[in-house]
Amino acid sequence: METKKIDEYRWEVPKTGAMRVPGIVYASESMLKDSDQKEPLKQVANVATLPGILKASLAMPDMHWGYGFPIGGVAAFDWESGIISPGGVGYDINCGVRLATTFLVEKDVRPKLKDLVHELFRDIPAGVGSKGSIKLSIKEEKKVLRMGSKWVVQQGMGEASDLEHTEDGGCMDNADPEVISQRALERGRNQLGTLGSGNHFLEIGVVEKIFAPEAARILGLFEGQVTLMLHSGSRGLGYQVCDDSLAFMAKHVKKLGFDLPDRQLACAMIQSPEGKRYYDAMACAANYAWANRQVLMHRSREVFSKVFGLGPRDLGMNLVYDVCHNIAKKEKHLVDGKKQTVCVHRKGATRSFPPGHEALGDKFQKIGQPVIIPGDMGTASYVLVGTHKAMEDTFGSTCHGAGRVLSRKAAKKASKGRSLHRELEDRGIFVKWTGRSTLAEEMPEAYKDISQVVNVVHGAGISKKVAKLRPIGVVKG
Amino acid sequence: MKYRLIDHTADFGVQVFGSDAKEVFSNAALAMFDLITKVGSLKGLNSMDVSISGEDWPDLMINWLRELLFLWNGKELLVKRADITILSENNLSAKVFFDPYDPDHHVIKIEVKAVTYHQIQVKSGPSGWEARVIFDV
User: Fold this and answer.
1) Which domains can be identified in chain B, with CATH numbers?
2) How large is the ipTM?
3) Measured between CB atoms, which of A250, A410, A437 is closest to B59?
4) A88 CB contacts (<8 Å, ≥6 apart)?
5) For chain B, which end, N or C, has fewer CB atoms within 10 Å of the first or last residue's CB respectively?
6) Which CATH class is domain A4-476?
7) Domain boundaries, given as residue ranges, for chain A
8) Is the CB of residue B102 less than 8 Å away from at least one CB of chain A?
9) What dihedral do alpha carbons B8, B9, B10, B12 form, nearest 10°?
10) Does B117 touch chain A (CB under 8 A)?
């Protein structure tokens, strides 16, 4: 597919055929040339054909081949005349990351690192089919779906400040558990507080470098500090909501009178009963995911307290921020100089709201919304903040991670005969994992270089670097 | 050959073969559970009847695999074999043989999260039936 250079960090996929708007891809020249981008670029073009799309079909520098929408895709649709698509959100609804600080520094943690990783591995259920310690009645589960993180904090698992430091306060208020299938409810009952498998993880990191001292100070970050990052989502409940929605939308979309280039793009008009039903069901899964990450952080706090013999005050495990990666949201954005209500789909992309935005709490008014970008388990992760440029150019969005370059099979082949956990240990990173092939599939070489991805979004101005973290301990599902 | 793996950056796919439509649907079930577990080590002493419908062949395939995947993800049952009893472009009935999951005896290889419509293909040709399905893992 043809791309035209706009500037150092942006490439246009020109409007052709049924495309209603052009595509715009964020990437460096080498990133666009290095890996096979034919399929994801085609997906960027496919998204541009959907009714109500505004300005452009966007892709972040961690773009890779998804189903329907590319991963790393961002697309905003007019709230009145546009569509909403489960394929624009993904199966793992509100898959996301959160980062917490501690008062500990690396030399406090090193001597006990293995104990810490073992204890986290033992106390936090991870891997395929793992069950959490919380068993929910259907009635109680529906409360979780309505309230998200608030329900968890109400149960004594967290602080009020955790909610202030979570996107949307950890709750989308349109959630309606009555539109969720019995199957989804069934799958959600015993998975609250489980990490999951695949690319989900818990990571102990150290702040290696501060780029923006004032923002770092406000976020409570300092060089040498030990942090905890966790990556998980809405588990089986979210997959089931997506699957159920795709099934009914695949039928529904035939009545809408336009051809879909790919069945995985099945959608409904946002204002139709079908569109609303998905939006309200998706919000339930989003709330479940926030609740899940809140439970996971609470359990991690308990493990840190136990291993280091510190009370909450001395441990200082405070939430920096929790962001979601797979979501569709009602937001207000400027389109052609006019403020417009839109439905922003972020599939493998992070919200990146600027200083002064009304959705942000007092703490972030001066610096903008924290953006947490995990890398692969052997390299680095970044903390950035949102910008006005993101509001102007990307509907307040930025990248979400490194993005895969090797398929799981190719990664397994590349890791054959190697002892990955020893290689990582030699680099000072202690890893525990559950799945038979998780470590090989998730090896550092399977992902794009996170620093390249972050340099593109920083250079393009759609978020700004605050700090770089390096991993020292990892639990993989 | 009943099926082969397709390499896709973020996911796993399978290309499934069969001499007729019934066989391609039955082999697709086998391929999916072969990704999840060691199908050869299952006994399949329990059985149940499954009936599903679809808009066309591809939709029927997705709904079929979706239904079987729920047996695993929702009910913790591992499917060894599926005998297709009735099949048309819009309807399928089958007898499904399964083992209840026992963590001490069964190996779980990967988590198959969902069956996607991505690049779905079900077609008949001179050498038999063929299907392509991509799973979200």
Assistant:
1) 3-136 (3.55.10.10)
2) 0.90
3) A250
4) A47, A68, A69, A73, A75, A265, A267, A328, A345, A347
5) N
6) alpha beta
7) 4-476
8) no
9) 20
10) yes
